[in-house]
Amino acid sequence: MRLPRHILPYGPDALLINWEQRIAPAISTSVHAYAAKLLEHPGVLECIPAYASLMVRFSIPKISAYRLREFIFELRLSALEIKKPVVHELPVLYDGPDLDFVVGKLQLSKKQLINLHTKTDYLVYQVGFQPGFAFLGDTAEALTINRKESPRSNVPAGSVGLAGRQTGIYPADGPGGWNLIGRCPWSVVRPGDDPTRLRAGDRVKFRSVSAAAFLKLSKSPAPWPER
Q1: Which end of the chain is less packed: N or C, by CB atoms within 10 Å?
Q2: Is residue 168 a contact partner of residue 155, using CB atoms and an 8 Å limit?
């Protein structure tokens, strides 16, 4: 378990906990373990995780910033306290508008790209950019590719993209600069109290499907995960 490097004030009722500022599974695991533990504290209102930091909002009548900071520094978590992640298996039809460009740029065949993309068990590092957009990593090194120089003004919901060593699914129509390699038939957002299918700390595995299977799956989406 990685210990925090710094704990800084973040407005009158929040603290920002920082780890080493890099993207790494061990750091992300520590971020989410601290978030889960801190949410058990009666004075903590909310925890918002990112790649290597955690913003903690607290109730001033119940605890001061100084006392909460000392509480965090004294925490010692073990691997036994890490919750088992929710695992998602998501289908993808690999027919994206950038697929030919990506395989040419990376000097791969389409089959090789699909094999590389589907063999990895991805970590949801954080959710942002759009509500429900999960940043998944790390892709195989051979799939490393820069974002598009000119972002699209509109990317259809369900599009699966690559950027850097990350992959993700666009939850809604909107602008975007990732290289689009396929489509997922299932929505990753919905209205209500549990709006996002994917949450930070979850794991995602993709599987390749045919066009016929894509149409069938789009009419019978998987149930929302139980948490």
Answers
A1: C
A2: no
Coil, strand or helix at 64:
coil
Best CA proximity match to 69, nearest among 8, 144, 18, 146? 8
Fold of 87-218: Cyclophilin (2.40.100)
Q: Which pLDDT value is given to residue 84?
A: 82
Tell me the helices (H) and strands (E) count for the chain, helix number first: 5, 13
Q: What is the residue whose two structure tokens read 């909002």?
A: 57
Task: Give mean pLDDT in consecutive 10-residue pieces for the chain, a chain of 227 residues.
Answer: 91 96 89 92 94 95 94 80 85 98 97 98 91 94 96 96 97 96 97 90 96 97 90
Q: What is the pTM of this model?
A: 0.84
Q: What is residue 122's predicted lDDT score, i.e. its pLDDT?
A: 96
* Spans of all domains in the chain: 6-81, 87-218
Give the burial class of 63: count Cβ atoms within 10 A of its Cβ; 0-12 exposed, 13-18 middle, 19 or more buried: middle
* CA angle in degrees (0–180, nearest 5) for 132-198-80: 140
| DSSP 3-state of 4 | coil
